[in-house]
Amino acid sequence: MESTIKDIKRETGLALSTISKYLNGGNVRPENKKKIDDAVRKLDYHPNEMARGLITKKTRTIGFLLYDISGTFAGILTHHVGTLLRQRGYGMIICDSSNDKSVEEQNVKFLADKKVDGLLVVPVSSDDTFLEPIKKANIPIVTIDRKITGTQLDCVTIDNEEAAKNAVEYLIERGHERIAAIYSEEYTGKQRRDGYRKAMRSAGITISGEYEYHERLHSVSLGYNGMQKFLKLPKKSQPTAIFMSNYEVALGVVMAINEAGISCPEDISLVGFDELTLTLVMKPKMTLMVQPMESIANEAVRILMSKLQNENSAALQRVLLYASLNEGDSVRDLRKR
Amino acid sequence: MESTIKDIKRETGLALSTISKYLNGGNVRPENKKKIDDAVRKLDYHPNEMARGLITKKTRTIGFLLYDISGTFAGILTHHVGTLLRQRGYGMIICDSSNDKSVEEQNVKFLADKKVDGLLVVPVSSDDTFLEPIKKANIPIVTIDRKITGTQLDCVTIDNEEAAKNAVEYLIERGHERIAAIYSEEYTGKQRRDGYRKAMRSAGITISGEYEYHERLHSVSLGYNGMQKFLKLPKKSQPTAIFMSNYEVALGVVMAINEAGISCPEDISLVGFDELTLTLVMKPKMTLMVQPMESIANEAVRILMSKLQNENSAALQRVLLYASLNEGDSVRDLRKR
DNA sequence: GAAATAAAGCGAAACGTTTCTGCTTTTAAT
DNA sequence: ATTAAAAGCAGAAACGTTTCGCTTTATTTC
Q: Does A309 have pLDDT greater than 80?
């Protein structure tokens, strides 16, 4: 049915090895080049990746293991990563762990069985034991967005702590002191919480326990619940500003304040994370720490490709990117007046 | 390095064919069963999928081709589909077409070269010519969410027209006549527009051209822009209710009305589509046509699997699911008062 | 124009499975 | 105990490539 390299052989009269060599970028005589090209076109020949892979031990497939694909950050990241990989001829097998460590563990085994050439991972677990099957097979791994403990892995992250610190300092500079924070207990959530605390501490502001709200995962309801809680505090001790550690959280917060009839920035100032779909059209324009999504995808794919091409490039590559503050109108300057 | 079936042979003293048979579910003597099991465990043997695939001509991989993965609907669908496929031992190669027909065309070729066993597709194009490479290879295809013209394909869709019609009828029943609609020019957008028009027509309400707003793609800004436009109409002729054809559109509309200081349902009634992250926490709870996301994924995977197992099940399977109206508090009953 | 060097071509072996064919052993039935 | 049927087994071929070592052809240099 499908034509094979043997059909090309029959058509051209050349040896298998010659044809194969040319097809893989080798040199052949111009006349043979033409013969092969013509035959390929005529027979609509496509090399069988499996036969090829059997020898080269390469599937030209990358595993993309991520905590959960349904969120907006994950969706956009996946979009970029997938496109970059495809441009390089690599397929991407996605495994979504539903934010569950045991699912994640199974997924690693699954991807190891699928013999992916490399693994990109935005992990659920915070230590590296679950990666054992992939490590044992000596498959390169690059983690994205979240670091994990254990033996050091190549990774691409942003400086979350610094970003959060900058965001909160931006609030402090404008006279805010009663600043609350909403974050998750995931890696990025905790990092951003630390940045928040750091900024507060170095400004000499003590953080009231009431001003921190957290749940296990980043979600719209996390933001919504957190804001609800803050609004229940006595008027006098309500925060004047909220630091929100993620896009979905910001959605929840905005819902809560709209519902309560409170307006931003008059009554409450907001600083968030990630300029994604909704934050692009929101009014007032929100002040945000913007992550360089495309660069994150780019770097991750670049590192992985370098490992794939250069087996010897064993040097650890840990790229740290920075989020930039995108000033909007969601923060009131309390000094003026 | 990796252990092969030959190592199992050496370890057990059995023939390759016997081992292979057992590993593929065949019967062997109990003693041999044990021998093989032990050897597999001891050597940590995992069959080489490529060698296997070379013979069976199966990759145990499904292509998932979709218009764009960054949206919420796509993310959630992908989550479900991926999980179902993985449970059945299938990997899923995702190709995101960036809402671009020519990218989509390339992706089909890419997936054909990857020799996927089946294809699930939420297409950009509205006709089937781009699927040629997959069809030629005789690979089963199931379209999801959007139908395409050309030779009939298996598909899973919801009755968008009916759903939209029901949503708009719900508004009409509550005394609304000045009902506006915001939709995209994509398949689902147009279907839902048709449902809107149908409901209006059969209620004998003529639709003012000013009451329809559309852009090429569903997006937050589509909703935002649409609502902005309606708000610019003279007070007297402003719509009392909006039918929004998609989740992102609803976000945009809500942003626009919040910004304009208009409240729902007092000043404006809203009916939307899809109960996703944000609509889950919004107040007032939005009245929504809810698509059975999990069933959509389930049916699509079920159909595809049936085609894979039963080559002869050539019968066309076109599943039509229904969205259900989930009543919230976003619609004002104009009859009371 | 011959010798030396480089480039291109060739055939066979290999990759790790499954499957086919014919043979042997076990089980069941008489 | 004998026979027939069923089940299990071994060896070999096949799947469609790449790669290795060797031979042939082309190119350069004196």
A: yes
pLDDT for B1 equals 67
Read off the tokens for B267: 């000043």
> Is pLDDT at A255 greater than 80 in this prediction?
yes
**Number of domains into which chain A is organized:** 3
Is the same domain home to B207 and B91?
Answer: no
- Rounded CA separation B301/B296 (Å): 9
* Residues B264, B212 share a domain: yes
**Residue A155 shares a structural domain with residue A95:** yes
What pLDDT is stored for residue B337 in this prediction?
61
> Chain B partners of A49 at a C-beta cutoff of 8 Å?
113-115
Percentage, residues of chain B above pLDDT 70: 99
Q: How far is CA B107 from CA A301, B64, B115, in A?
A: 19, 10, 12
Q: Is residue B54 part of a domain?
A: no
Asked if A155 and A199 sit in the same domain, the reply is no
Give me chain B's average pLDDT, please.
Answer: 92
CB interface of A with B, residues 106-125, below 8 Å:
107, 110, 112-115
Q: Structural domain of residue A236, as residue ranges?
A: 160-291+325-336
Shared-domain flag, residues B112 and B175: no
Statement: residue A205 has pLDDT above 80? yes
According to DSSP, the residues that pair with A63 across neighbouring strands are: A93, A119
The beta-carbon neighbor of A96 closest among B79, B107, B112 is B79
pLDDT value of residue A120: 98
- Is B56 inside any structural domain? no
- Amino acid sitting at position B208: S
Q: What is the mean pLDDT of residues A53-80?
A: 95
Distance between the alpha carbon (CA) of B14 and the C1' atom of C19, Å: 17
Residue type, B307: K
Output the CA angle A238-A240-A245, nearest 5 degrees. 100
Q: How confident is the model at residue A279 (pLDDT cuts 50, 70, 90)?
A: confident
Percent of chain B clearing pLDDT 90 (strictly above):
76
Residue of B nearest to A136 (CA): B2
CATH of the domain at B114: 3.40.50.2300
Distance spanning both ends of chain B, measured CA to CA: 80
Query: What integer pLDDT is reported at residue B29 of this predicted model?
Result: 81
Average pLDDT along chain A: 93
Residue A249, in any domain of the structure: yes
Contacts with A, B 27-66, CB within 8 Å: 46, 48-51, 53-54, 59, 61
Q: Which helix (H) or strand (E) holds A221?
A: helix A220-231
Distance in Å, residue B314 CA to nucleotide D17 C1': 33
In a domain, A56, yes or no: no
Q: Which two tokens stand for residue B52?
A: 């296997």
Say yes or no: B316 and B271 in one domain: no
Question: With left for phi above 0 and alpha for psi between -120 and 50, is residue B145 left, alpha or beta?
Answer: left
Which chain D nucleotides are covered by protein, judged by CB under 7 A?
Answer: 7-21, 26
